[in-house]
């Protein structure tokens, strides 16, 4: 399987940046992920990410680390950080940029160590894929926590992407699936990824899922665009 995301990161790292990653989803036809954005500094990050990095403490697992921007910031602050990503290219870029501890794996297959902070930024909860997987996903994350550990994650309520009626309600398709479930494909320099499932979870749905899985869920910050940062801890 072609590591489309990793290819783009490696090109940028090696000074061969000429185009961005195109995304195609079941929600909108085409969008882009600007590759330089994945290499952003703390000052260039949205408030939600900055807040999460300020709250991170102890031994940190940066899940879906990408180019390692969050890991590097925390490492430079003196924290012990492990950057985890399923992309070979992402991990090689993390190493090239100076991240000291990296793991190439998917989070669901990882169980080597316990952490004080699990970081899932850029809608990291999306890795659950579908809402029906959220409970198992949260349980697995909880199993990686130290007793007083925390999970810091952000997501969005994508209800705004649906049409509104005159009463201010939203026209959400009634096909039995959760409206935050999206199928994505990525394309870079003519190479396409396989389609993959991704889920955006609204805060109420997340809080209910946490409640039924023995986790506290605290809303830390709401962003400007239906996005939010939440902190999850063991009950």
Automatic annotation (TrEMBL):
It comes from the Bacteria. GO terms for biological process: methylation. Signal peptide: none annotated. Pfam families: Methyltransf_25. Keywords: Methyltransferase, Transferase. Residues 60-149 form the Methyltransferase domain. One of its GO terms (molecular function) is methyltransferase activity. The keyword Methyltransferase applies. InterPro entries: Methyltransf_25, SAM-dependent_MTases_sf. The keyword Methyltransferase applies. This is Class I SAM-dependent methyltransferase.
């Amino acid at each position: 399987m072609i590591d489309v995301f990793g290819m783009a990161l490696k090109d940028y790292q090696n000074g061969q940046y000429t185009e961005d990653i195109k995304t195609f989803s079941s929600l909108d036809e085409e969008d882009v992920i600007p590759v330089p954005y994945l290499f952003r500094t703390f000052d260039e990050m949205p408030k939600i990410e900055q807040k999460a990095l300020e709250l991170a403490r102890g031994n940190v697992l940066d899940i879906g680390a990408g180019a390692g921007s969050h890991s590097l910031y925390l490492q430079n602050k003196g924290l012990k950080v492990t950057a985890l990503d399923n992309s070979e290219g992402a991990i090689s870029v993390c190493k090239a940029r100076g991240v000291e501890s990296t793991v190439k794996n998917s989070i669901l297959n990882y169980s080597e160590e316990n952490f004080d902070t699990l970081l899932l930024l850029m809608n990291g909860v999306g890795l659950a894929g579908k809402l029906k997987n959220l409970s198992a996903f949260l349980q697995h994350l909880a199993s990686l926590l130290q007793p007083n550990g925390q999970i810091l994650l952000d997501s969005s309520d994508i209800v705004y992407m649906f049409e509104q009626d005159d009463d201010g309600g939203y026209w959400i398709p009634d096909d039995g699936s959760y409206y935050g479930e999206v199928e994505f494909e990525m394309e870079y320099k003519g190479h396409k990824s396989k389609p993959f499932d991704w889920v955006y979870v609204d805060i109420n749905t997340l809080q209910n899922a946490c409640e039924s899985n023995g986790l506290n869920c605290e809303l830390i910050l709401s962003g400007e665009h239906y996005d939010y940062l939440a902190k999850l801890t063991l009950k």
